[in-house]
């Protein structure tokens, strides 16, 4: 039996989730919800289900919902998540939220705490870790192929001219990069960051801190670095992650496109291109959502959720520490 899914927030990303649910044999869409009536109605027509204009009325309707996607946006792309997420979690509906979990750590903490109290599965769409290439690289780490981990270097950048808040860049984009870094190297102990306001291609000074360089010390001693920018071009690519250890190194490019292992003891390389048939970042939504559906189907314990609300809270905490480090000009211990 397929899982009955509701989707809240029918913008571009809510519709991207919907496309994944339509194509996944584990799910069927039973409700869509948006405070903009036209968006909800258009989605209802497209996916053949009822439309709702707020979460409360959707919950009151009595429609059976096994799990939900929560795809609102708001300030720094996370300001609207809190209220509808709390309503879904309060109703004990397993919820897959969009990133950032929230642009405010205090609200992120409350959502994670409520999910824990209600013993309900709560995940965030930290989709960059859900690729066959990232999974294989993590297997190498877990099996000791890299030996003792030493260094992680991550770059993530796109072209985004949004100037709505000074720290939009780090809060909206870097939940992804920091989640990938945590995925390979674990929890972070200390953070130090520098920011720079870039210029547009036609020479205008940006208001947003659109470039960053961050140093991270992980709890296991690994030393890491993150380069981030909203002033990149399409030709720059999206991301690159490099991890070195006492026995070897891997480089993972574009989340899923190219993975190479470099043996420290010889010049041998092992390379994978489009591992598992995944060819581009867009496909990460379907793989992330499939894992979410599988974890609901098998009734995974909330504490075992891959890419959980708790994971997302941890990356948001690192982000706020980086901002504090820049403002106070010091290293921040988490
Ligand atoms: N995981 C990824 O790779 C990825 C990529 C891009 C964007 N995102 C995230 O996806 C989210 C959505 O982005 P988008 O571009 O689709 O935004 P959007 O603004 O186009 O859509 C959000 C929709 O939510 C609706 N909404 C707001 N409050 C609501 C509420 N209380 N109840 C019901 N509907 C409500 C809005 O009316 C709007 O239609 C953002 O958090 C963004 O950061 C994730």
Shape annotation: globular
Number of strands: 15
Return the structural class. alpha/beta
Outline the biggest β-sheet: 9 strands, mixed
Q: Low-confidence stretches at least 5 residues in length (pLDDT < 50)?
A: none
CATH top level class name of the largest domain: Alpha Beta
What would CATH call the homologous superfamily of the largest domain? Dihydrodipicolinate Reductase, domain 2
Q: Which molecules other than protein and nucleic acid are bound?
A: nicotinamide-adenine-dinucleotide
Name the helix and strand elements from N-terminus to C-terminus, one letter apiece.
Answer: EHEHEHEHEHEHEHEEEEEEEHHE
CATH architecture classification name of the largest domain? 2-Layer Sandwich
Mean pLDDT: 97
The number of distinct helices, counting runs of at least 4 residues, comes to 9
| Terminus-to-terminus distance | 44 Å
**Computed Rg:** 20 Å
Please give the share of residues in helix.
Answer: 25-40%
- Summed up, the domain count is 2
Strand order of the largest sheet: 14-13-12-11-7-10-9-8-15
Do you know the CATH topology of the largest domain? Dihydrodipicolinate Reductase, domain 2
Report the sheet-strand fraction. Answer: 25-35%
